[in-house]
Every structure is written in C-alpha cells, then in structure tokens.
Design brief:
Layout lengths: L1 E4 L1 H9 L4 E6 L1 H6 L1 H10 L4 E3 L2 H7 L8 E5 L7 H4 L5 E6 L4 H14 L3 E5 L7 H7 L8 E2 L4 H10 L3 E5 L6 E2 L9 E5 L8 H5 L3 E4 L11 H13 L1
GO molecular function, one term: RNA binding
Family: Belongs to the class IV-like SAM-binding methyltransferase superfamily. RNA methyltransferase TrmH family.
Keywords: Methyltransferase, Transferase
Length: about 230
C-alpha cells in the first residue's frame, strides 16, 4: 500500500480505479470534502477514521496538511516488460534519486502519451514526494520499477527497440537532427553524474541536447521533458 494526501489526488486515484483500503481525515476536512469522505466510507467498507489535527500534521508530507489521507493498494503495473515485444516508445530512468524529478518526468511522459516508463535504481515511485509530483499521472501511465537495467536494455534490443543513451557530449547525435524510430527507448541518467560509461555502452546510440550560450547542462526533469516531446511528436 502507499499513501495519498489531498482531496484532488485521492479523487484522481478513485477515478482511475485505484483500490482504497483506508481513509483518515480531520474534522475540518470532513466538512470541506463531505461528499468525498462519504464516498470513501463506502469504498473502504467503513474504514474511514476521523483523526486530530496534530496527527494530520504527523502524517502529512507537506508543511501545511490538507487533512485528508488514503491508504491505496499498490498499482498493478508489472506487465510492461511483456509490452516491449510489441514495439512502442519508452523512457528508462537510471539512478535518479530526487523524488520530485521522478514524479515530474512521469507526469511529462503521461502528457505526451508515452507507451511506458521504467525506473531502474531510482527514488521509489510510491515515495510521497514522488506521488505528489506525478499529480495523478502515475495512475494512468504504465510503469515498472522492478526491472534490472542491463537485462532490460538487452531485452529491448532483442525485441527490436533502438536504445538511446542521453549524454552531455558534443560528439553524440544532436537531438534536433535525429529521427526517432517507431520502436525505441531513451535512457536518462542520474541528476549529478549522468549515465556511467557501462550503462551508456549498452545502448545502441548516444544522443544529446546541444546547448547555446554558457549553459552546459540541464536539470534531469527538464532534459527528459525535451526528449519526450521530440520522441513522441
């Protein structure tokens, strides 16, 4: 199970068919979100509990608690590896440690209609900060965080996908000049270190966003969003 905080996120989860096990809410939240609380009481079979404001503060992952929480069932997303065999466009996140970056990329991937996203050695997608950053996109986009990186890349290649390593290297293919195949995947590396030489070597091609002025690198989420736009346009 994982925790959802806030009425909007809980409503999105319910709308996408996510199972809700328990609900906790403050007295103020019960008044403000009366219809949602009543719905949660039905969905949980009565496992909806009023708690104190102080306990809400303890449970909250934000500086100002919204006063309503739900314990949701883990999402059934582990069939994505089988989907690779049928082609499509994917993104692989490798060793990203900032939950906010992971969540932002998941949201961007959902926005452009990516076929799926893999998390290898990354911040847990069920981390409250990641969940919040996805703003509900994690309920919609196929994802998998169980795959081992090297085995995943080899499976992609064996399935006919062209794999791209995103790098900061002037000798790599410029994103602006690249024509992506119908079946391909881009790998995004760690925020500070990027991809290791070994991880890069496993991929078919190296690709970069060539920048102007004094800019020599971009935030991982920003770079991933640019790649996603070009990949799916």
């Amino acid at each position: 199970a994982f925790v959802l905080e806030g009425a909007r996120l809980i409503e999105d989860a319910i709308g996408e068919g996510v199972g809700i096990k328990y609900c906790f809410f403050s007295g103020e939240a019960a008044k403000k979100h009366e219809s949602l609380v009543l719905r949660l009481e039905r969905l949980t079979g009565g496992r909806a509990y009023k708690i104190s404001d102080s306990l809400c503060g303890v449970l909250s992952d934000t500086s100002t608690s919204q006063g309503i929480f739900a314990a949701a069932s883990a999402l059934d997303k582990f069939n994505l590896i089988d989907k690779i065999k049928y082609g499509g466009k994917y993104m692989v996140l490798r060793n990203l440690q900032d939950p906010g970056n992971v969540g932002t990329i998941v949201r961007a991937a959902d926005a452009v209609g990516l076929d799926g996203i893999f998390l290898c050695g990354c911040a847990d997608i069920y981390n409250p900060k990641t969940v919040r950053s996805t703003m509900g996109s994690m309920f919609r986009i196929p994802f998998d965080q169980s795959a081992e990186y090297s085995a995943l890349v080899m499976l992609m290649k064996d399935s006919g996908l062209v794999t791209y390593a995103s790098v900061v290297d002037g000798d790599a293919v410029d994103l602006r000049e690249n024509a992506f195949e119908d079946a391909c995947a881009i790998v995004i590396g760690n925020e500070g270190r990027g991809l290791s030489d070994g991880d890069t070597a496993l991929c078919d091609k190296r690709i970069t966003i060539k920048m102007k002025g004094n800019i020599d690198s971009l935030n991982a989420a920003t770079a991933a969003s640019i790649f996603l736009w070009e990949l799916t346009k």
